[in-house]
Amino acid sequence: LRFDEKVRVVVFKSEVKGVFCAGADLKEREKMDDAEVGLFVKRLRNLMDEIAALPVPTIAAIDGYALGGGLELALACDLRVAASSAKMGLIETTRGLLPGAGGTQRLPRCVGVGLAKELIFTGRQIDGQEAFSMGLVNHTVQQNDEGDAAYQRALTLAKEILPQAPIAVKMGKLAINRGIEVDIASGMAIEGMCYAQNIPTRDRQEGMAAFREKRPPRFIGK
């Protein structure tokens, strides 16, 4: 996906009705020794980092349970859409664990330190409406009979992104992701560097021409 220039947006969904991702198989985990658990979680953390580092926008369509590592997967995405009936939580502390695939870092960056601590310390599960109210998800929708309401809303959101200039969108994502980790002055410098990469693109010239000619732009990602 990272190197496929035809890919504009990636939507993560489940093929299992009522479940986005239920997290680790604790029966499997129980059979591992300490070293195996450490390696397993390290690989899982690396996977989440790879997803977060995808250059194109990513959307998690949460149509059911997103627990533990399942919520960490959703947090690794740029945007999240949830059915109001979905259940989400970093439930690790209820099993003698703590989030190990990015949850302790991405959740506070998403909802703030206080709420993240409360959710992680208690292991509480929340529904889609609660998640929306605290900013954990971008949109919440009523579940439909097919059980894919969040996916359908995610597709609508993806279709809003598709017509925009691909390189500009990628540079925007990069500027936000890098800039949020540093002070504002350094962030402005990062934005400047990302903007500079976009200046010589054919898409920028197309955008200007389309505005002048009062027509929709035709971006090609070049």
TrEMBL record:
The UniProt record lists the keyword Lipid biosynthesis: no
Alphabetically ordered keywords of this record: Lyase
Keyword Lyase set for record: yes
Domain of life: Eukaryota
Matches recorded under PROSITE patterns: ENOYL_COA_HYDRATASE (PS00166)
Family designation: Belongs to the enoyl-CoA hydratase/isomerase family.
Name of this chain's protein: Enoyl-CoA hydratase domain-containing protein 2, mitochondrial
Organism in which the protein naturally occurs: Struthio camelus australis
